[in-house]
Amino acid sequence: MSVTHLAAILPREGGPLALANRTTPDPGPNDVLIEVKAIALNPIDYHQRDRGFPPIPSYPAVIGCDVSGILAKVGPGVTTAPAIGTRVIAVATSYYHNGSPDYGAFQEKVLVPAEVVIPLPDDITFEDGAVIPIAAVTAMTAWTSIGIPLSARFNPHHKEQAVLVWGGASSVGSFSIQTARMLGYRVYATASPRNHEYLKTLGADAVFDYKSNDVVSQIVEAIKADGVQLRTAHCVVDGGLQPTLEILKATKGNASAKVAHSPVLPPDHPTLDDTEIVFNYPPLDEVERKKHMFECFHGWLSDGLRSGSLVPSPPAQIEKGGLGGLNEALDKLRAGVSRTKIVVRL
């Protein structure tokens, strides 16, 4: 007799999600099975529900990315996973598994590759833990995508250099600030005024109101007054590339500059001479991607959470209803949130 669990499935493109029982899979080589306790929501989730993008190979599907929970089973040959019963966080996505619903986050039991599962410290709740995985790895991938290796932690050569994080109050932006600080850079960020002090607690040296008419000149003047070099930026949100390039034009001098861009880059996006603009995305090659994910999770993230040098951010906004409340929670996320990450508790 097969064991089943509850899932919020996507029966067709455009949704809505519907509750159904699924057969609980056994983990194969390199996989673990997690009993899910909390799920954090990301914009990609409502894009997949509403538009089927990124592409979903077949339906019914199980979508979602961010989970925390209890490690329930370990597949054969897995040597890097925590012990069974350990509290963990993970990126759970069917995107890298040909759409297999066994790997989607929106369910009570989920398969996850061992390289993206790490212990959750006892002083961090499941709800706070769930906000971490995809935002943290996206922030770290932004730096590697423009040639900054993760091995450069606290590089003393970075102390006279700065990075700009445009969109610092978003979940990815908050981890972009934290990881840039760990790389040893001086960090400048943009956000609404009500979020400025919070971003400074995460490691931003200076924060600017992105809605100010003179925000570009404010940042350029601060860079020059602080005597640092700004040739590197991460655009976390739409609408940030043009002002970012204006700032770099005034600060990079004759040197080249690099911008990691997390939203999809439109074909007609603005450009700047001697400036590389890179879409922020993990390596497409499976071997390289697994290596990168292992370094992100089992190196930086695991060490950072254990030492307290990385903290969950932004705060979790817990929505009611569990799996049955996901449609409403996704609608709230689509309507827009600031300095919060929507989480459902199972």
Automatic annotation (TrEMBL):
- GO MF annotations, alphabetized: oxidoreductase activity, acting on NAD(P)H
Record-annotated Enoyl reductase (ER) domain positions: 14-344
> Which keywords does this chain's UniProt record carry?
Oxidoreductase
Q: According to the lineage, what is the superkingdom? A: Eukaryota
What InterPro entries would the database entry show? Answer: ADH-like_C, ADH-like_N, ER, GroES-like_sf, NAD(P)-bd_dom_sf, Trans-enoyl_RdTase-like
Cited Pfam families:
ADH_N, ADH_zinc_N
The record's similarity note reads: Belongs to the zinc-containing alcohol dehydrogenase family.
This protein's name? Chaperonin 10-like protein
> Source species, please?
Echria macrotheca
What lineage does UniProt assign to this protein's organism? Eukaryota, Fungi, Dikarya, Ascomycota, Pezizomycotina
